[in-house]
Amino acid sequence: MREMVIHLNLFAIALAGAIAGFFASRFGGLWTPDQIWTAATIPVAVALAVSMLRDMLAGRFGVDAIALVAMLASIAMGEPLAGVVVAMMYSGGNLLEDYARGKAERELRSLRDRTPRIAHRQEAGGLVDIAAGDVAAGDELLVRAGELLPVDGELLDVRAQLDESAVTGEPLPETKTRGAALRSGTVNAGEAFRYRASAAAHESTYAGIIRMVEAAQTAKAPFIRMADRFALLLLPATLIVAGLAWWLSGDPIRALAVLVVATPCPLILAAPVAFIGGVSRAARSGILMKGSSAIEALGQVRTAIFDKTGTLTEGGARLIALDTAPGVEAGDILRLVASLEQASHHVLAETLVALARQKALPLSAPTAVREYRGSGLEGVVEGRHVRAGSRRLVLGYGPLPPWATSAGTSGDMAAALAVFIAVEGQPVAFLAMADAVRPDAAATLQRLHAAGVSRILMVTGDDAGTAKAVAAQLAINEVRADCSPADKVAAVAAEQARQPTVMIGDGLNDAPALAAANVGVAMGARGATASSEAADVVILVDRIDRVAEAVSIAQRTRAIALQSIVVGLGLSGIAMVFAAFGYIPPVAGAFLQQGIDIAVIINALRTLVGPLQPGRPGVAARTPRIAGEV
Question: Among this protein's residues, is 307 annotated catalytic?
Answer without folding.
Answer: yes
